[in-house]
Amino acid sequence: MKLKVVILSLSVFAYTGFTAQNIQNNPGSNHGNRFEQLGTILPTPNIYRTASGAPGHGYWQNRADYNITAYLDEDKKNLKGSETVTYYNNSPDDLDYIWLQLDENEHSSIRNSGYDTSSVLHPSTTDQQLKVTELPVKDNGYGVSLEKVTDVSGTPLKYTVNKTMMRIDLPKVLKKGEKFVFKVDWNYNIPNRIRMGGRGGYENFPEDGNDLYTMAQWYPRMCVYSDFQGWQNHQFTGRGEFALVFGDFKVSMNVPSDHIVGGTGECKNYDQVLTSDQLSRYRKAENASEPIEIVTLDEAKKAEKNHSKQRKTWVFEAKDVRDFAWTSSRKFVWDGMRVTIPENNNKVMAMSFYPKESYGLYRKFSTKAVAHTIKTYSEFTIPYPYPVAQSVEAANGMEYPMICFNFGRTEKDGTYSEGTKNGMIGVIIHEVGHNFFPMIINSDERQWAWMDEGLNTFTEYLTEEKWDNKFPSKRGPAWTIVDYMKLPKDQLEPIMSNSENIVQYGPNAYSKPATGLNILRETIMGRELFDKAFKTYAKRWAFKHPEPADLFRTMEDASGEDLDWFWRGWFYGTDPVDIAIDKVTAAVPNLETDPKAAAEIKYQVEKPLVNSFEDLSKIRNREDKNIKFYVEGDKDLQDFYYRYDRGQEKLDNNKQYTIKTEAGLPLDTRDKEKFKNITGYQIDFVNKGGLVMPIILEFTFEDGSKLYDKSAAQIWRLNEQKVSKTYYFDKKLKSIQLDPMRETADIDTTNNFWSSTGTGTETSKFQLFKQKQEGGSVRGGSTGKVNPMQAAGKS
């Protein structure tokens, strides 16, 4: 009869299960409810939003279509506009009024949001800040000047402006299924965004006397009316971004005739605004696999010298977008190429607009980065649905449907640093990626910055990795968030905080949620489960208005993983990860049945293991034969494969630990020879940080070989403060490294290492014994499997 023993040669064995005695030794006082369900923390499911995270059968959202004309006065730095808005009430509610956003009031000294911040005296200041305080505050001349607000027949409508918001009182109740058409005429003085800040405005180039305009938040825009909030009419302070409704746009921009214009959607009259040579190049670029200059560098330099007084009107149209932005300048070089999205065979024009100051970088990289981004995001979310994707160099970073503004200028001699190049590529990927979050998966940025910035930063990281396996990503890998998580508790805030109230905005809205998703993908769920669930969320909520609960529930619904503990800890809490190896206890077999009590090996860190660290994602990506990097990297490292074990056994120093045969038969000489080199190790861990995570171990043996093991985070479910893991190896263990690839964001790695040479402690022995089994039958004797509880002498 085949003996079935506990030890497996050159593999890891861990006991599973938790006995009544363990429960008695680990009372309920150790619980912080980290594994309890979120329950009432999440909104109650209803006919609009289901418990699965999908839109319900009663889901609805309102819509707004725009027809806009704009006149850019370059001399006066003024924009004059007129819009006709058709607003559709698809909600079950009767509406007495509607709300619009007047975002340009951000720049007004008297009509801004009024959200003051604390200020102190500084030893140095700028000339712009050094102004005599005048009370009461005088009007600085910026902000929206409303000229006319009427219904479609021209009858004036009653309206009220409250800082950056405008309420229009409807002449009659707008019922479900009805639409309301109204008109607004307005103008505003365009701010110098380099001096005054903000997303929209102009930048002046004093060397050639020209301007570059980024026209954003430039028209009165409808607020969102939703099932979960009603009107989203929180004031615009300049930080919290936008909640917007989908619709169709037709926009005509009248600009100086020597300007080049790029905008959301497709231009409908290139044949009227481009020269014959430029139009010919555009047609060629439509089928090119490499970027072609549509407006050349020489043409841009020539245009800079003559400021035309003639005018041209550019006409753009866009369908199913939540916003419209545009850019205009005579300084622009313009290039483009065609990129095909395999998932839907969508042929997209990828294009870039940039001044000569950016030529050395943008000509080489920008349009290619645009193409790479929409292709990669399409793999991880939904196929890119729009006809164009554009990058504009404007010394800043901001995103809108099908167009975004980025930085990336060379030195005057055309040279640039690696830091500038990588920063430019990273920001292009990030801002183009915003086409997916939130331009398509249309979350409420005014309330939840992380739902667009965090999800987008995570997907940006995946895209950077596929651009270049060695790309120096600053956000996404777990180790990059450690410095933030180390901060004192009074300097940390939950991710689930309103955009306006976050102090550490970058780490909290961008880095921490991106890192959390990466930990889910690489360490907790695995790539296959995560990618399916993430794509499900994107598909479910494309062209809709998702909320956090919709993401949380979908990720669990599509994967079969209970992640409430992770959302609770990572998104709602501020605890860091700090798991420590507390002590290691070793025991060796005494074949003469003369056991000694197990001795304790006290843990100390004298010589912490120093690894040549490389991020786990990079290694896995190199091993994935399906991944083709935009910039080829090395492919010489192997992936790690982990077993998932659960449970805990408490080591009692006064107890004898035994190994027996399944049949209870006596051990013969051959058996003793097999068991004589076995050493048992109990590793005790403590949760010092508070946030639970999987326990990932790298074992190094005296012969130089290594083994890896991972226990899911649920190992902490019965004791959130202390757990133990027991292993039996048939060769001597030299060291143990906890979280060797730094994939859990552990803030203190000095307590993650144990070495057998670090102490002079003595190992003890455990007894191998025989037991005669009455009845003579052996259950499952031919299976070759081990019952770990039986092997441990447990019932």
Automatic annotation (TrEMBL):
Q: Which InterPro entries match?
A: Peptidase_M1_dom, Peptidase_M4/M1_CTD_sf
Cite the residue spans of the region called Disordered. 773-795
Q: Which domain of life is it from?
A: Bacteria
Q: Which residues cross the membrane?
A: none
The secretion signal range is 1-20
Q: What residues does the Peptidase M1 membrane alanine aminopeptidase domain cover? A: 371-570
What Gene3D superfamilies does the entry give? Neutral Protease Domain 2 (1.10.390.10)
Q: Which UniProt keywords apply?
A: Signal
Tell me yes or no: is Protein biosynthesis among this UniProt entry's keywords: no
Q: What is this protein called?
A: M1 family peptidase
> Which species is listed as the source?
Chryseobacterium candidae
